[in-house]
Amino acid sequence: MADIINRYAPIDLYMPEDSHRVIREHVGHGQPFPRQVDAWWIAFCLGVRHKEKRPMPERRTKFMEGTILSSDPWRIVHLELVALGLHGEEILTRPREVVQVATEHANYGLEVLVNALTGQNEPTLALMNFFDMTRL
User: How far apart are CA 102 and CA 45, in angstroms?
Assistant: First the structure.
């Protein structure tokens, strides 16, 4: 099997500052998300699923470097397949645009996740109920 090259390693990953504040509280042991990138990835998937995106607001927070994608190489393949499907083959020659597409979809999904998490005493249970397939 060929190694997957992470062309996104030098690109910083951001999320809106308001979303980051909420997500950060729900990351770690006993929380819904093991890592911030996991929340961002779910948010990205939600944005793609709903065909929605949001531009990055001025107030943003760098939460990780693109090197994190190497820890789960399937994410690189998934990221590129989504970009390819949405924008055609040419976008794959512009890694920063691929990340921008993912970020804009994730921004929408982060809004959804933040709304699902806010005010919940049991955030993991709240997300499990939220992700019930009949609701998506």
Answer: 9
Cβ-contact 98, 92 below 8 angstroms: yes
Distance CA 94, CA 50 (A): 24
The structure tokens listed for 91 are 């976008």
Q: How many CB atoms lie within 10 A of CB 107?
A: 24
Banded model confidence at residue 2, pLDDT cuts 50, 70, 90: low
Contact (Cβ atoms closer than 8 angstroms) between residue 92 and residue 101: no
In tens, the pLDDT along 36-79 reads 999 999 999 999 999 999 999 999 999 999 999 999 999 999 99
pLDDT at residue 135 above 80? Answer: no
Gap between the Cα atoms of 16 and 36, Å rounded: 13
Distance between first and last Cα of the chain: 35
- Report residue 51 CA to chain centroid gap: 14
Question: Torsion-angle region of residue 11: left (phi > 0), alpha (psi -120 to 50) or beta?
Answer: beta
Region 30-41: mean pLDDT is 94
